[in-house]
Amino acid sequence: MVVREVGLRDGLQSIQTILPTDCKREWIRAAYEAGQREIEVGSFVPPRLLPQLADTADLVRFAKTLPDLFVSVLVPNLKGAERAIAAQADLMLVPLSASHAHSLANLRKTPDEVVAEVARIRAVRDAAGSRTLIEGGIGTAFGCTLQGAVEPAEVLRCMQALLDAGADRVSIADTVGYANPAAVRDLFGQARKIAGEKFCCGHFHDTRGLALANIYAAMETGVARFDATLAGIGGCPYAPGASGNAASEDLVFMLGGMGIATGIDINRLLALRARLAGWLATETLHGTLWRAGLPKTYSTAVPTPLAAHTS
Amino acid sequence: MVVREVGLRDGLQSIQTILPTDCKREWIRAAYEAGQREIEVGSFVPPRLLPQLADTADLVRFAKTLPDLFVSVLVPNLKGAERAIAAQADLMLVPLSASHAHSLANLRKTPDEVVAEVARIRAVRDAAGSRTLIEGGIGTAFGCTLQGAVEPAEVLRCMQALLDAGADRVSIADTVGYANPAAVRDLFGQARKIAGEKFCCGHFHDTRGLALANIYAAMETGVARFDATLAGIGGCPYAPGASGNAASEDLVFMLGGMGIATGIDINRLLALRARLAGWLATETLHGTLWRAGLPKTYSTAVPTPLAAHTS
């Protein structure tokens, strides 16, 4: 099971603190040393929109020096994709919002316009002979705060369209914590039928405390990669103090307890969390394991890091 | 699905505040009006040990005035059981700790001595012509902070012994938050095979954030009743600030989102939580829904309260 660390992107874009590039490098290195092999290091968005992620190209360059680290970035459009290709990122995640209202408000595009952009990205990527994979990430898949309900059929239509447009992979995100285990089981089960192994990742926010239950439900459909952020940073700007993403350390703990290999050393991850808590001293952090500590019975044998996933 | 409120017992016994009897009565009434039909109102332990629960007999008397409310108490021994029978509680939960070390430290009895006490309680109950049900509650079923590992085989042995001794029902508790969904699925699945419908309830602490994931895993084995405490009060005295029980409001929210009827009005429950937060202003409360609020898409149609479970 792969726990993809997205704290450097989805976490840091949602908080006030601008983490210095040196700290981000330390974070990436320590996460790598803890055994994490997939890290989303930033986003190729215009720096005026997200100044806290302006060092993304630097971070890709640094992360690519770590053997077998699979380096992801988010790209909102073709321009971002060109930067990701130039930086030789291993994967670029193109977000699509299944909620039309959210899509127009956040991306200023309809879902179908995002699909068309993915087709252009694919053409440019192939023409450049680049090996940067394209992941279509379908957000607000369980509803959104603007539009309310989002139909599963629309999520699946977008998924098929992304694949047809040339996305190498697709993933589903519960952007605002509206999902529940039954909805996850249903939607993820259908998504697996459409996309098979190309449906590669689930992304769950813990806004209402269900992230880990939702991940467990998703695992039962065969999905084997989940996004998470250290200390659960991220969260919804519209719900001050609400929990953010699934906390990486809590997820690694759950999986380890279940006997599922992640290749990640939980004690090193907890030590890194403590450093992050120092860097983000003015932010609200989340997660529960750091406070309670590991159970006496927990096996902390250092596991072998998983091989990087490149397909 | 029954959400059994145990905050008045498992919650209040673990915190500093001594809640006045009037507040407890208000809590019981408001929980009842929100649709809760099973409430553990206290514990028949010596008042010098738990002065905060000294009003249990009063609370049973009050709770029994509410039509169709199924009123539970905890009893540690025969003496407590005699009080529960005299008070005409609907159910008395006799705790057994599957961890021998925890059993000796907390109950001053071995598990087998607790089983023998259950046999005595059964004899006295039957001789009195009482209809108070006996539930054997097996705690530290996934390990404990003193002993470490607890073998599933020992949990199941205790379960069979409790049934043989005359317990009407049995339940399993993760007293210290050591469980994970895989362990729950395995143990609960085996327990169902041994006890069938008599295995009636799961009790999960959220010490390490997995209570709701564990409950979802347990639901898949067919168990249809879970303990929870409003605002997640309870928690482990050895892990200051750590989360307590599964929060009733978060659990009701999860089940409602999944389309599973609990008979509980989530808005009334959240309103009650706000009152409880006032009563317990100096305590650390838990849960996530109260902060984020309900999703825009959430159905808050007031459901019919479930009929009381008496078998």
TrEMBL record, chains A, B:
Gene Ontology biological process terms in this record: ketone body biosynthetic process; L-leucine catabolic process
NCBIfam families in the cross-refs: PRK05692.1
Keywords: Lyase, Metal-binding
Protein name as catalogued: Hydroxymethylglutaryl-CoA lyase
Superkingdom of the source species: Bacteria
Family matches, as Pfam families: HMGL-like
Keyword Ribonucleoprotein in annotation: no
Matching SUPFAM superfamilies: Aldolase
Coiled-coil ranges from the UniProt annotation: none
Pyruvate carboxyltransferase domain ranges (all copies): 1-270
Family: Belongs to the HMG-CoA lyase family.
Record GO terms (molecular function): hydroxymethylglutaryl-CoA lyase activity; metal ion binding
InterPro entries in the cross-refs: Aldolase_TIM, HMGL, PYR_CT
PROSITE patterns linked: PYR_CT
